[in-house]
Fold:
Amino acid sequence: MADNTILETGNFAVQFGVFVSIMIFVAYLTWRKVSAQKAASTGSADKEIFLAGGGLSWFFVAGAITLTNLSTDQLVGMNGAQMLLLAWWEIAGFIGLMMLAFIFVPIYYRNNCTTVTELLEKRFNGASVRTVISGLFLLGNILIYLPAVIYSGALFMQSLFGITTPIIVIAGIFAVAGAAYAILGGLRAVAVLDTYSGVGILALALVVVFLALQAVGFNLTDGVPSERLSMIGGQDSQIPFHTLFTGMIFIQIFYWSTNQNITQKALAAPTVKEAQKGIIAAAFVRILIVPPIVVIPGVVAYKLYGLVPNDKAYGLLVGNIMPSWTAGIFAAMIAAAVLTTYSAVMNATITLWSVDFHRKFIDKNVNVVRLNQGVGIIAMLISILLVPLYAGAESIIDLIQKLNGLLSMPILSAFAAALLFRNMDARAAVVGLMYGVIAYAFHTFYLYTDQAIWGGTTYYRSIGLDWLHYIDVMVFILFSSIAVSLATNRFLFGNRAVFIFSEEGKKLRVQEKG
Structure:
């Protein structure tokens, strides 16, 4: 396996100076733009911190959505798998973004939502479901998204530069810088940082793809097993082909349309049409640019070095194919990718706690600026402490997707029940939600493992369900959670749910609009 050489052939001091200069320049551009926009804003402090004063143009909406999602967990994690198949996670995102643009965004704006959970409170007869789902979103952000993104960023820096600085130290530096943007600048600073950084990140990532292909003579096929080049996954792959038509669709709807981390950016536009323009622009970036940058370098790394363990393929490849004079530039762009995602998730975390918990249960008149600072610092410290837990994962992206399943389908079931039915008790939705979390956890972390022993073999094989993938199970979790909610609503709370497309449901919809 080749050694990393990007700094061995360059001057570390010079490249570090380039890195610092670029980061300062991006921070200056962000501060300048944010200051100008704040000066023209007439919104409250709440709206400024949580929704950027409602003044994000489509360009910044698109940038914020794109870079909230695209970070080192994609660049490092997906390329770390060293196969083209994982591009489906990005390609399928187009569907979720279209759902957000044309179905969910009009509903959120019509209901004047700051958090997506506000919609649930307005649709159900009770607020308990809003509180539970906000809590799950907070746990997901703090336990999954925040530590994962700084871990993968720190891992890349180690691989790129061949340094021995402990992962947790590098991750801590990322966390402090990313939290500073969210705490000091609110959503507006996050969106501007995302957009300005995004141009450089996407451009440089495409350069990596070109140089990687050039390094193998634009020939990926020779010496690479067919299963690493195929877009049709086998049953034992990370994405079996049939799952594209089962759980994959619903995963994308959840992530892009009901996830506070993403939707908050769309809610910060002045109008529905402006938000839709930004979402559509993000969707085309998602389907045209993102797929090649997250899988092709990994496959090239396989051809050049063989199987690279521990998600280090991308950093190793970049360290060998990029000219030494680009080290500082590339380090800055990767750092920006980490900061954009981390700060965006941090801002969503602060918003959820402030709006759905603190003001509701503790102090409705709290100083939002001071609260913003306190919540941000606590979330930052927890995310740093959790970084070592991700160091033992065989695949970052596979682990993240499995952990996401604990929340995604149960939460989506509550949104489906809220949008498709009326006369639903919020407590019934909570029962369906908790059933979904428990059922998915039982499947994925017990039945689906080799440690699940029923009569000396795995439970799946003993009943002939060894073909069932965790993405398939998400479909079952979604629909069974909805069924549990409806049954609980009817038999425990005595309410008859009304389907919105029935005659009675159509009358209720007319009354709501009227």
User: Anything to note?
Assistant: The chain has one domain: 12-30+47-392.
